[in-house]
C-alpha cells in the first residue's frame, strides 16, 4: 500500500516531500490511516480537528483522541469548535453542507496564517463510488461521473486509490487505533443509504463493484477531458464580452450538435441549473424578450444574442443636478459646463454630448429611469413620441431600456441620455447660453 500511495502522489502531482501538509483528522479510520501513511513518507505534517458538536459526548471523545494522537506524534495541533446546527439554520443549509462550509473555511485560514501548502483529507475509493451513485440518482452530466478530484485547489486526497477494506487491513497491520462514528451506521443520510443498502446489492451482481467503479471513473475522466476541449474550442466562437455582459451568439449556438450542453457549461458557473438551461434552449426558437434568472445573474433572450449580466436592482430614484459646472459622478458620470453661444459654435454630432438652451431649463434638473407613459418630442419632430415607441424604433433590447436614463427639466424630458434630445430644448438663433453635458 505504501508503494501504491507514493506512486499515486507522484502520478497525480499531489505535493512535494518538502511541503508542509495540514492533515484533517476526525479520528476515524480514514484520517488516521492517512496521517500514518504520510508520516511513513516523512512528510512535514500538522493535524487539524473540527468538533461539530453533533454527537454529544462522542464528539468530545473524538477531540480527546485526536489531541492525544498529535501529542503521541509530536505534531502541531489545531482544533476548532463549531455550532453547526445554528449555522445550518441561519444559512438554510443541510447539516452536511454546513459542516463542509465551516471546516473548509477554517482550514483555509490555517493554511494562510501558518503557511501550509495543502490540506489533506481522507476520501478513498468507496467514497468515489458512493459519490458517483449519488450523482446518478440526483441527475448529473459528465462532470458528476468523474467522482472526487484527487487535487482541487489546496485540497488533496492521497487515499483515493484505496478501498475501505484496504484501509482496515493497513490499520490492523500497523496496530492503529481509531474512532468509530456511530452515525455512519445510520441510514438517515443519502450517502449512508447508498453505502449500506445499495452497494451491498450491487456487490451481489459484481463482487468487485468498487474496483469497477474506480475504473469507470478513470474512463469518465478521459471522456470529460475530450468534452472540455470541444466545449472550450466552440466557446471561442460563441461567447463575446461587452463591457460587463457576456453575449452568446444564438445563430452559432444553433449550428452546434448539442446546444444545451454548450449552454450548460457556459452558464452553470453563474448559478444556472440543467432545468434552467433546458428552458433557455427552448427559447432559442421563440421571439426575443424572454428572461431567465439564477440567484445572481439573468439571461435576456435578445434578437441575436443571449445576454448574460449580473442581477441589479432597478433604480427608481430621482437624482438632482444643480445649476453648476463640473463632474457629475452619480448615478452616471458626466461632465457639465456652461458655454457662451458664439457665431462659430458647432453642434456636436456625438449622441453622448447634449447641448441644450440653458434659458429653457428649470434647475435643478433630474435624472431618472424611464417610466410607463413617458413621452418626449424628438429633435426635428413637431409631435410627441412615447419613450416606449422610441425604444422600439431604435431596436433597444430590454437591457438597453433598463440602462437608459432620462434628463428631466420641470416635467419634461430634455434628453434621452446618450441617444436623443428633445426639440423644445434645442439651441436656436436666440440662444445665448448653452448647457452642455458629456457622458464620460
Automatic annotation (TrEMBL):
Localization annotation? Cytoplasm
- Enzyme Commission designation: 6.3.4.19
Matching entries from PANTHER family are given as: TRNA(ILE)-LYSIDINE SYNTHASE-RELATED
Q: Which SMART domains match?
A: TilS_C
Q: Tell me where in this chain the Lysidine-tRNA(Ile) synthetase C-terminal domain is found.
A: 365-437
What is the recorded function of this protein according to its Swiss-Prot or TrEMBL entry? Ligates lysine onto the cytidine present at position 34 of the AUA codon-specific tRNA(Ile) that contains the anticodon CAU, in an ATP-dependent manner. Cytidine is converted to lysidine, thus changing the amino acid specificity of the tRNA from methionine to isoleucine.
Biological process according to GO: tRNA modification
- Which InterPro entries does this entry report, sorted A to Z? Lysidine-tRNA-synth_C, Rossmann-like_a/b/a_fold, TilS/TtcA_N, tRNA_Ile_lys_synt, tRNA_Ile_lys_synt_N
Family assignment from sequence similarity: Belongs to the tRNA(Ile)-lysidine synthase family.
Q: Which UniProt keywords apply?
A: ATP-binding, Cytoplasm, Ligase, Nucleotide-binding, tRNA processing
Pfam families reported in the protein's UniProt record: ATP_bind_3, TilS_C
Q: Give residues annotated as binding ATP.
A: 26-31
Would you tell me the protein name for this molecule? tRNA(Ile)-lysidine synthase
A GO molecular-function descriptor: tRNA(Ile)-lysidine synthase activity
Where is this chain primarily localised?
cytoplasm
Q: Name one GO cellular component term.
A: cytoplasm
| Superkingdom of this protein's organism | Bacteria
NCBIfam families from the entry? lysidine_TilS_C, lysidine_TilS_N
List the catalysed reactions.
cytidine(34) in tRNA(Ile2) + L-lysine + ATP = lysidine(34) in tRNA(Ile2) + AMP + diphosphate + H(+)
Q: What is known of its domains?
A: The N-terminal region contains the highly conserved SGGXDS motif, predicted to be a P-loop motif involved in ATP binding.
